[in-house]
Amino acid sequence: MRALGIDFGERRIGLALSDPEGSFALPHGVVERTSDRAAIAAIAALAAQERVELLVLGAPRRPADGAAGSAVARVRGFAAKLERATGLPLEWVDEALTSREAAERLRATGTKRRDRRARLDAVAAQILLQEALDRRRGR
Fold first, then answer.
1. Which end of the chain has fewer CB atoms at under 10 Å, N or C?
2. What is the largest CA-CA distance in the chain?
3. CA-CA distances (angstroms) from residue 1 to 25, 90, 110, 133?
């Protein structure tokens, strides 16, 4: 099953795609978010083009206590619109610290500082998508 990982941000939305078997995730890129409508159209087009069967979205949580972050209502609203536009099922994954982990991975691979920002959101989407794929495989 092909899945699309989505790391929602107000300015950029990171995207990652699984392989067709749903075993591993690869960073795909980012959508510059100018509006929900434009971002959803771009994501829906990618999902259709790549024959995606599952959307995986990061749910914001506070690292200190794991409680729902203040952005959760915003992300849930975006997710509802995305589900309606694509007709695809959506699975939530805790996204706490994915951006930090993504930055550490990029730094460890020697990615130049100016290139990290452009790739950070896609790598964060890769991390959350891989978590969802691993969890599904463990079931």
1. C
2. 40
3. 12, 13, 32, 10
Cα angle vertex 99, ends 94, 104, to 5°?
125
> Rounded to the nearest 5°, which phi and psi values hold at 14?
-80, 145
Tell me if 78 sits within 8 A of 55, measured CB to CB: no
Instruction: Answer for the pair 132, 22: CB distance below 8 angstroms, yes or no.
Output: no
CB contact set of 71 (below 8 Å; sequence gap of 6+): 60
How far apart CA 80 and CA 87 sit, in angstroms, is 10
Structure tokens at 11: 């300015």
DSSP 52: -
90 residue type, one letter:
L
To the question of pTM greater than 0.85 for the whole model, the response is no
Please, what are the domains in the chain?
A: 3-138 (3.30.420.140)
DSSP string, 76-136: HHHHHHHHHHH---EEEEE-TTHHHHHHHHHHHTT--HHHHHHHHHHHHHHHHHHHHHHHH
The model's pLDDT over 64-117, given as tens digits with 9 standing for 90+, comes to 555 655 677 888 999 999 999 999 999 998 876 666 766 676 567 666 666 656
